[in-house]
């Protein structure tokens, strides 16, 4: 199984690159932002509570997103692997993700971070806000708050994966296909260096 965390601030290009990666590597895309927006669209209680925080650019509680990821893993038992986009955003979420992966006899292969400076992020998100219909993309103050939340609460998650020697960073500014090529290069290197865990190997032999 190939499980990748795509990391970076809002507007770094995680969603765009995820779409290309799921096609190339046959993965399931799990974006907690998309899962939360689906809850909002369905008008669930969870969605209503989350919306208030999301519209302000603040994080929703760890337990909410961890629960959603746990359910998504259960509902995709045939997946060849997952791309996590926008999750984990706190160290507590990263720890829970490791536990969830272990309970499915798998693990995170690597984290790939897309680095983009704040002024470029603001420009990109305001542009996206013209068509995304997202209140958090349409107001510069909210966008800058999301970047601040990333810097203060989320950036430290990189250290969690660096300690496991799974962290890689790339420049997120440049042609989409060039960045995609660099991400694929890193994934292919990782796969060559670290094949499946013994548990996964046994599963494949049995299958
Ligand atoms: P995104 O689509 O990834 O930019 O996420 C939009 C918003 O959803 C964020 O600003 C948060 O309010 C919320 N959100 C998404 N993923 C998470 C997460 N892993 N932890 C907490 N809040 C999240």
Automatic annotation (TrEMBL):
Pathway: Purine metabolism; AMP biosynthesis via salvage pathway; AMP from ADP: step 1/1. It catalyses: AMP + ATP = 2 ADP. Pfam families: ADK. GO terms for molecular function: AMP kinase activity. Its main location: cytoplasm. InterPro entries: Adenylat/UMP-CMP_kin (IPR000850), Adenylat_kinase_CS (IPR033690), P-loop_NTPase (IPR027417). Its EC number is 2.7.4.3. Belongs to the adenylate kinase family. This is Adenylate kinase. The gene is adk.
């Amino acid at each position: 199984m190939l499980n990748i965390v795509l990391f970076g601030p809002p507007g770094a290009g995680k969603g765009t690159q995820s779409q290309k990666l799921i096609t190339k590597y046959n993965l399931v895309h799990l974006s907690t932002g998309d899962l939360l927006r689906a809850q909002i669209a369905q008008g669930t209680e969870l969605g209503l509570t989350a919306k208030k925080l999301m519209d302000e650019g603040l994080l929703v509680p760890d337990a909410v997103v961890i629960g959603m990821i746990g359910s998504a893993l259960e509902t995709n038992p045939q997946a060849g692997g997952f791309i996590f986009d926008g999750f984990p955003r706190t160290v507590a979420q990263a720890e829970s993700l490791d536990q969830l992966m272990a309970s499915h006899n798998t693990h995170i292969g690597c984290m790939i971070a897309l680095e983009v400076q704040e002024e470029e992020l603001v420009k990109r998100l305001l542009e996206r806000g013209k068509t995304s219909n997202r209140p958090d993309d349409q107001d510069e103050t909210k966008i800058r708050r999301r970047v601040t939340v990333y810097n203060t609460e989320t950036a430290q998650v990189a250290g969690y994966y660096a300690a496991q020697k799974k962290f890689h960073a790339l420049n997120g500014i440049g042609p989409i296909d060039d960045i995609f090529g660099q991400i694929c290069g890193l994934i292919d290197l990782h796969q060559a260096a670290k094949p499946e865990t013994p548990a996964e190997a046994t599963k494949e032999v049995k299958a």
